[in-house]
Amino acid sequence: MKKIENAKIVGKKVIVRCDFNVPMKDNVIQDDTRIVESIKTLKYVISRAKKVIILSHMGRIKKLEDLKENSLLPVCKRLSELLNQNITFCKYDEDINEILSKNDVIMLENTRYFDIDGNKESNNDINLAKYFASFGDIFINDAFGVCHRSAASNCGICEFLPSYMGFLMEKELTNLDLVRNNPKKPFSIILGGSKVSDKIGVISNLIDKADKLIIVGAMAFTFLKAKGLEVGKSLVDIDNIEYAKNLLANYSDKIILPNDIYTAKEFNNKSIKELKKVEDIKKDDIGLDIGPDTIKIINENIQYSKTIFLNGPAGAFEFSNFSYGTKELFRIISQVNANTIIGGGDSAYAAVKFGYKDSFSHISTGGGASLEYLEGKDLPALKYVCE
């Protein structure tokens, strides 16, 4: 690994790529975890470098209306508060070099603003990468959440500057390697969320290492349907029913599915919920959460685990009426004496939302990146900082 401590940044202009793609509503940050996680790297660089230039993306930019909704200005203000230091925000129509000459720490506007003109950021346009690189002498990549994407601000820029990983990037890789390489056994995987297709790579790469594969959330209904059970109007990944059948046939001794479900007639928080055994689901039912008996079975199966990896919620946790399973899952995992890794995305957001931010060994800041890394893939941005 090309660690930040090995970078000769004293007296240099240093570009730090962070992942500040945080959830926003009406320009108000809903969860600042990714910003908080960047603080260690930024403090280290700011205390040593001559100048610091912060880059990040935010959301997706497809049309002009997306620009205003995805500005990094609220992030810049929050970061200034956390660092207790003024950070100057720069728009791309300003003289950035002039601003940099008068300020020690600046943040550039959303790098994906350049996607409005031919997806230059997302397509790793070499001229855009050179433009970003022109502001600094050294590049620090701390944006684990997008290291599976090849963009101008995280990959292309490395073609022009000496590149190293930040503390967050190092922490992510160190903890995910506890799952990816030789996990301490017994090793339990708990997968939730909606689509089986999103998790096939992880399952295929880790199933032979795992002692238990526990399927919850909407994913479970694809497997229950593969077993021939009625799942009503529950979400099913039709394209992967056959995959689920084959997995059940080959790994029946490892796979655990829900045996009781909270159902409703409508997909909303006000819908009356009813606890049912999976065999009793009706054609007009929607499965929205796992029940207490399922939690009990999961608890019994993970008690002696030494490594637990969770990705995806156990139900429609965004509805308070159907958040029981996700909350209980976090509770029982937090009580196990094991390396407990939460694989980013919705499960990471839910863990923070329900008060479990400090209850696990590691909560990843990158959902898609963590999954692809655990699939065994070579992530584009890592080749520049892992040589």
Task: Give the N-to-C terminal Cα separation.
Answer: 6 Å
**Range of strand content:** 15-25%
Radius of gyration: 22 Å
Q: Output the CATH topology of the largest domain.
A: Rossmann fold
* Count of distinct structural domains: 2
Tell me which oligomeric state these chains represent.
Answer: single chain
CATH class of the largest domain: Alpha Beta
Class of secondary structure makeup: alpha/beta
Shape: elongated
The CATH architecture classification of the largest domain is: 3-Layer(aba) Sandwich
Helix content: 25-40%
Number of helices: 14
What is the mean predicted local confidence, pLDDT?
Answer: 96
Q: How many distinct beta strands?
A: 17
Strands in their spatial order, largest beta sheet:
5-6-4-1-7-8
Major beta sheet summary: 6 strands, parallel
Low-confidence stretches: none
Q: How would you sum up this structure, described in words?
A:
- The chain has 14 helices and 17 strands.
- α9 packs across α10 and α11 packs parallel to α12.
- α13 links the parallel β16 and β17.
- The model has no long low-confidence stretch (mean pLDDT 96).
- The protein has two domains: 162 residues, Rossmann fold, CATH 3.40.50.1260; 202 residues, 3-Layer(aba) Sandwich (Rossmann fold), CATH 3.40.50.1260.
- Helices cover 32% and strands 17% of the residues.
- The strands form four sheets. It has a six-stranded parallel sheet with strand order 5-6-4-1-7-8, with helices on both faces.
- It is of the alpha/beta class and 387 residues long.
